[in-house]
Amino acid sequence: MDPRDTNGLDVQFIGKPSPTAPRIQAGGHPCQGIYWAPAGKKPKTAVIATHYNVDFAEHYIAPYFARRGYGFLGWNTRYRGFEDQFLLHHAILDISVGMRWLKEEAGVERIVILGNSGGGSLMGAYQAEAIKPTLDGELPEAVRDLYRNLTKADLYISLNAHQGRPEVLTDWMDASVTDENDPLATDPSLDPFSADNAPPYSDEFVTRYRAAQRARNQRITDWAKAELKRLNDAGVPDRLFPMFRVWGDLRCMDPALDPSERKPRWCYRGDPAIANRTPSIGRVNSIKTWLNMWSLETSPCQGAPHLAKFDTPALVVQGTADTGVFPSDARKIFDHIGSSDKQLELIPGAHYFEDSIEERENAADLMAAWIAAKS
């Protein structure tokens, strides 16, 4: 039987309002997800996974956990498909709705947070805020007590996770962009796709390129802060703006950088040279979302400060053929985690282990065994 089938599983849709987002007039709930469990059973341990933008309700790993006796809540905040409006403090409240549902309605006694892909830093931020809240001042007074008493998870798993939202965007930025309003404007000396700068990249080029990526992030931040003030002074709360060319991570082109078993000259969207020309991650943002999610200077979505607060057992799992998260990223996440009880495992497989059911089974076995060992 294909483990992705739902035979032998109970699959339940959940829809809930958020403390700061009511049910919309058309009928939809801002917080939605699917709870997976073994048929006819109420597991005492359940996993929850959420992403900034991607719909995780039908997460590929859900049936694998359910077939191993665990519940799995693939949970979505109000920002699924609406990344351009993202604000972390509201997303954390939305995640808390799923956490409370697991405890109060599903009868779960122990919760495991799964921080997968981009959702790694989001779920890490939730756990950190449950340990020691810092963003409650961003919320209306009426919900601050609720925020200060978030349900804390018992275990944390990082699965093929990016370090943080600003970190991954900056690592992927094309550093040769010279004008954010012109998709063609390029500094030839920094163009990672030109014949003059072909892999293997020199140490000098890599150093210059990485510095230029950080500088690009800062230029957007400087503009965003000034533009937001200009708009606010005129009574305009915010605006949208586009962003181009964000598949320029040198590691995608040069397999000698951060070596792994990944396919060379490849990224999640295929050939980086082609993907870099098309709208993709961060393609449009409100100014407030840029400052909240993507800015290296101002974003609370960076991984390290949150991971440092951890005091619960943590497992970091990384696929060695991942084309967008690399071994050094997994090691940095592991190093940032403040828990004394932590484990790092590098295993065969791509980002979602999409190339092999066997590799998905192995990843699920590893995580399920670790959870059982922490019982």
Question: What form results from the Cα inertia axes?
Answer: globular
Query: Whole-number radius of gyration?
Result: 21 Å
Helical stretch tally? 12
Report the uncertain regions: none
N- to C-terminal separation?
Answer: 29 Å
Q: Strand share of the residues?
A: 15-25%
Average pLDDT metric: 97
Helix content: 25-40%
The number of strands is 10
This entry's quaternary arrangement is single chain
Specify the structural class: alpha/beta
Largest sheet: 8 strands, mixed
Give the strand order of the largest sheet, numbering strands 1, 2, ... along the chain. 1-2-4-3-5-6-9-10
Element order, helices and strands?
Answer: EEEHEHEHHEHHEHHEHHEHEH
What can you tell me about this protein's structure?
By secondary structure, the chain is α/β, with parallel strands linked by helices. Helix content is 34%, strand content 15%. It is built from 12 helices and 10 strands. Helix 2 (88-104) packs across helix 3 and helix 6 runs antiparallel to helix 9. The longest helix is centred in the middle third of the chain and has 31 residues, at 203-233. The radius of gyration is 21 Å and the shape is globular.
